């Protein structure tokens, strides 16, 4: 007999013996399980007819009582021992998950990961360091209340009722129907009655809904915590609170019965109470009725300087307690007060000093609340991505008018501080988180800060100084874009660079460098400084663009070098005019500067053609381009502009440099050993 065949037979016999022992052990376990099932219930895999799911020992998620360990069905083909039950045996529980009833699949993985050896479950190793699959509690997503017909009817009814109360306070004055005291008392009584009826209706609705014996409509609205909400109660409470705030505003602005600071406190307290109820009931409808109803109808009662402050107080209360109740609430509390404050700040010169101070303080507090809510939304609430823009931009709108306010003259230090604050928030948001929400918050605050900085430089005074400040700002943005690598910074840097170049061209008129008469008359030291700043900006933009567009680095380098050299040439001409003016011969300074510019261009071209650079082809190509431009300037401009001696010196200098380049370039491009004459 072959020794290999004998070894194979012995291995098969050993395997058969092991399989027999395993079959016997499994049979004993099944027999014990069958006996236990007969003691605990009439069926192993199901439940008795009178048994509730909570009482069933075989319900999903709870292992059978008394089961020492999960069992494994007998291998296929093995005979079942006597006394084994005929019904299927429960499948073994997976480690890290609850017991799974027989025949139930596991599509979502609720019962733990599969065993490491599906065909050999008895070899599944215990892993006590692994947490159970469902050990960590999961927070259920916040459900939005459905908009039903009852909700729409309640909202419309509350709005109509609130408009009627406002008309009661306004029309009664115009028609002289009631004395002032009767109007105010009637509005107050009606507000109290509406709020009381709404609270009582909501309390009865909650009691009826939570009563297990009551038959309630399963489609009734409820908040995510399970508290039932009645749309009619929401409308009554919202209408009553808004009516109370309108009554306080009328008592303060029309009749002067309540001091203004006390009225601010009353309105703020009522708004906070309404938003607290809106947050408790998770009702955006209640928040919108209280805030939007007051903001829209308050101008019918008062148009004084107190109006935007009342509206901002309501908006701040809404932002503090009800900002998470949806995008509509965010639009209401941020957009309406923002535009109203901006309108009043644009007419700040018509108000007294104290009123201007109140408007400025309100705008600052309102903007700070907007940034704080946007930051909290981004860090904690995880709202929709557009929420940052919905909050930050409208609340910052009044700040754009602060530098132009007569009380803050000069306003550029205030505008600079505000722009720096928003840019600091943008940097912190960009460094704190890498998700899309933080990136959007950084982008929005960065754009707002950039806009405030632009408006600040506009209020700086002086066209030359404004253009120089814009150029410096663009230079800073370009450097930040090259170092930080954020898309919004790239966009701001590009926009700021374009604006700076356009303003420089419109204010400093660099084309005057081509005319000796206009340059001598117009150029000042501001042109020298501005041209130098534009040169630095061109160099920075070239560096930034090469980092962002590595495949187009050659073209970017050529364009950037030409622009930078042109701006530097304007600076040289302006400096020549200024220096010549100091010595009394400004025209000679202009002519000498043009001579220097021509020689500078041809020398730069020669250096690029002859330089020893690893990227010699690109450098030589750029050198040839600059040399062509220098030769064109010599023939088209210098020949017609430079007189006598300056023209001779220009032609001699350019010719000498070109001859030197020709000799050196021939030596470098000739092969070795070919220098002998032919």
Task: Note down, in words, how this protein is organized.
With 678 residues, this protein is mainly α. The protein contains 20 helices and no strands.
In brief:
With 678 residues, the protein is mainly α. The chain is built from 20 helices and no strands. Helix 16 packs antiparallel against helix 17 and helix 18 packs parallel to helix 20.
List keywords for this structure.
678 residues, mainly alpha, 0% strand
How are the secondary structure elements laid out?
Layout: H1 3-40, H2 149-175, H3 180-210, H4 231-253, H5 260-281, H6 284-301, H7 306-322, H8 327-346, H9 353-381, H10 387-396, H11 412-432, H12 436-458, H13 463-484, H14 487-508, H15 516-522, H16 525-548, H17 553-583, H18 586-610, H19 616-641, H20 644-669
Question: Could you give the distance between the termini?
Answer: 95 Å
Number-wise, the strands total 0
* Helical run tally: 20
User: Spans of 5+ residues with little confidence (pLDDT < 50)?
Assistant: 42-105, 107-112, 120-144, 214-226, 672-678
Helix vs. strand class: mainly alpha
Approximately how much beta-strand content do the residues carry?
under 5%
Rg calculated over all Cα atoms: 41 Å
Approximately how much helix is present in the residues? Answer: 55-70%
The main β sheet shows up as: none
Order of helices and strands: HHHHHHHHHHHHHHHHHHHH
Q: Given the C-alpha coordinates, what overall shape results?
A: flat
Q: Give the averaged pLDDT, no decimals.
A: 76
């Amino acid at each position: 007999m072959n020794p290999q065949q004998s070894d194979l037979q012995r291995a098969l016999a050993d395997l058969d013996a092991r399989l027999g022992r395993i079959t016997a052990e499994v049979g004993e376990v099944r027999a014990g399980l069958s006996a236990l099932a007969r003691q605990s219930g009439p069926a192993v895999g199901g439940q008795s007819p009178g048994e509730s799911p909570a009482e069933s020992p075989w319900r999903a998620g709870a292992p059978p009582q008394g089961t020492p360990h999960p069992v494994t069905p007998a291998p296929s083909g093995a005979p079942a021992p006597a006394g084994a039950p005929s019904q299927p045996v429960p499948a073994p529980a997976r480690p890290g998950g609850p017991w799974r009833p027989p025949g139930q699949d596991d599509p979502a993985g609720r019962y733990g990961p599969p065993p490491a050896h599906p065909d050999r479950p008895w070899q599944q190793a215990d892993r006590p360091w692994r947490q159970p699959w469902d050990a960590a509690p999961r927070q259920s997503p916040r459900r939005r209340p459905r908009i039903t017909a009852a909700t729409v009817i309640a909202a419309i009814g509350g709005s109509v009722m609130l408009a009627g109360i406002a008309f009661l306070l306004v029309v009664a004055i115009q028609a002289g129907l009631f004395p002032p005291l009767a109007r105010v008392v009637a509005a107050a009584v009606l507000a109290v009655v509406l709020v009381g009826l709404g609270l009582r209706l909501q309390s009865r609705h909650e009691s009826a809904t939570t009563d297990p014996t009551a038959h309630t409509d399963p489609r009734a609205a409820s908040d995510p915590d399970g508290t039932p909400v009645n749309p009619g109660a929401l409308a009554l409470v919202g209408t009553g609170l808004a009516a109370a705030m309108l009554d306080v505003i009328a008592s303060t602005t029309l009749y002067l019965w309540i001091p203004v600071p006390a009225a601010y406190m009353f309105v703020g307290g009522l708004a906070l109470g309404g938003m607290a109820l809106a947050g408790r009931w998770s009702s955006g409808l209640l928040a919108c009725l209280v805030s939007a109803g007051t903001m829209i109808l308050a101008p019918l009662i008062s148009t004084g300087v107190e109006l935007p402050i009342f509206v901002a107080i309501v908006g701040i209360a809404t932002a503090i307690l009800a900002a998470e109740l949806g995008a509509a609430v965010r639009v209401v509390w941020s957009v309406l007060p923002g535009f109203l404050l901006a309108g009043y700040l644009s007419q700040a010169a018509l108000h007294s000093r104290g009123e201007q101070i109140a408007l400025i303080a309100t705008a600052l507090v309102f903007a700070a609340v907007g940034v704080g809510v946007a930051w909290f939304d981004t860090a904690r609430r995880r709202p929709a991505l557009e929420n940052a823009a919905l909050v930050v931009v409208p609340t910052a709108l009044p700040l754009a008018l602060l530098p132009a306010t007569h009380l803050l003259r000069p306003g550029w230090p205030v505008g600079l501080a505000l722009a720096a604050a928003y840019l600091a928030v943008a940097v912190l948001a960009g460094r704190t988180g890498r998700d899309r929400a933080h990136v959007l918050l950084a982008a929005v605050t960065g754009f707002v800060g950039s806009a405030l900085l632009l408006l600040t430089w506009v209020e700086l005074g002086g066209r030359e100084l404004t253009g120089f400040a814009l150029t410096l700002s663009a230079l800073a943005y370009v450097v930040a874009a090259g170092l930080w690598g954020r898309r919004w910074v790239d966009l701001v840097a590009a926009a700021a660079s374009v604006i700076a170049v356009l303003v420089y061209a419109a204010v400093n008129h660099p084309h005057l460098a081509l005319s000796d008469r206009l340059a001598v008359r117009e150029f000042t030291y501001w042109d020298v400084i501005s041209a130098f700043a534009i040169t630095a900006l061109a160099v920075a933009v070239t560096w930034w663009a090469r980092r962002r567009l590595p495949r187009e680095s050659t073209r970017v380098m050529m364009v950037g070098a030409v622009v930078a050299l042109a701006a530097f040439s304007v600076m040289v001409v302006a400096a020549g005019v200024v220096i010549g003016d100091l010595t009394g011969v400004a025209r000679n300074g202009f002519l000498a500067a043009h001579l220097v510019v021509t020689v500078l261009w041809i020398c730069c071209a020669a250096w690029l053609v002859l330089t020893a650079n690893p990227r010699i082809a690109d450098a030589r190509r750029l050198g040839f381009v600059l040399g062509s431009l220098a030769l064109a300037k010599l023939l088209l401009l210098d020949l017609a502009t430079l007189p006598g001696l300056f023209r001779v010196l220009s032609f001699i200098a350019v010719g000498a440099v070109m001859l030197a380049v020709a000799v050196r370039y021939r030596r470098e491009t000739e092969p070795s050993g070919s220098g002998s004459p032919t």
